[in-house]
Amino acid sequence: MTDAAELRRRTREFLAAHPPGDTDRLEFLRARFDAGLAWVHFPEGLGGLGAPRTLQAVVDAELEAAGAPDNDPRRIGIGLGMAAPTILHYGTEEQKRTYLRPLWTGEEVWCQLFSEPGAGSDLAALGTRAVRESGGDWVVNGQKVWTSSAHVARWAILIARTDPDVPKHRGITYFLCDMTDPGVEVRPLRQITGEAEFNEVFLTDVRIPDSRRLGEVGDGWRVAQTTLNNERVAIGGMRLPREGGMIGPVAATWRERPELRTHDLHQRLLKVWVDAEVARLTGERLRQQLAAGHPGPEGAGTKLGFARLAQEISGLEVELRGAEGLAYDDWTMRRPQQVDFTGRDAGYRYLRAKGNSIEGGTSEVLLNIVAERVLGLPAEPRTDKDVAWKDLAR
Fold this sequence. Notes:
Layout: H1 4-17, H2 25-34, H3 56-65, H4 77-90, H5 93-105, E1 110-113, E2 129-132, E3 138-145, E4 155-161, E5 172-178, E6 184-189, E7 198-208, E8 213-214, H6 220-236, H7 247-256, H8 263-290, H9 299-321, H10 346-352, H11 363-374
Parallel strand pairs: 1-4
Antiparallel strand pairs: 2-3, 3-7, 4-5, 5-8, 6-7
Helix pairs in contact: 1-3, 2-5, 4-5, 4-6, 6-9, 7-9, 8-9, 9-10, 9-11
């Protein structure tokens, strides 16, 4: 399936058989997956047709024109952007057929159990332990933190230490964890915005069957790199129209409120507008490169740019609005299902953007990745490279 015209014809036939106005939303999404129109670049039977990734736009345009429902991608972004490509790359056939369909339709929300109180920027130092019992199950104990959507998630991608006697980047194994299992406790983390989209997760004697292991035992760090590379692209390289995202409200305020304008603010707005457009086009180029394979370290650069721009734009917006920019709409403690940057006020955007340089890999870590893995600069000295994890100072 490499022909846009053929794919357009197939999409129209699907719409004729499943009219969006007369078909239940979930039934429509399930049928779309089964027809291979979910991820056209995925294999047949797994939501795709084995087509080039670039042809997804052909399908999306036809469906949007017909008023078809989407799968609420922002609500299930971790599943779509991180879990799905990792399961596709490393999962068994049974795992792919079990998890991908309800993930894509949004029936099952996913979260990411990676970071820990003592292993955030240095993720490979994680201490959550998974011990295999004689029957084959794994028993997991530990704590994870900064877990977006854990309070609404059914499944989690989890990395845990299965061998403490080898250096920290080895001896890690990757699992799929059922968030409804006994021993999984989710607690809210109230943020500077007043709400708690983040959580901390405590794992106490959580039993995970070996059938939910993704990849080989001890190979979890390599599997996790697929997740992390896709995460950075998902955060920093999302598809946006011109003036989409954070720059949109600022540009609209500038046009609609001439009394707020000053020469200095005009110059700053011009700069961030151009930077936002460059970032948007860079993300588009990166997505086109993905058509040839899996994301690499280049995604770290787009995520870096996203964090810097979000903070610079939101700061400019608060200044542009003057005294009203200091107001805040609602400090009520809530546990939202997704981040809504454009649906809230300027104060929310300013505060929430502070987390952009931490989540999805801190900007400091991503600068190292760009320096070493993109630019080929010498790596920073590492004294723990050949030291067993159990012997590291803590």
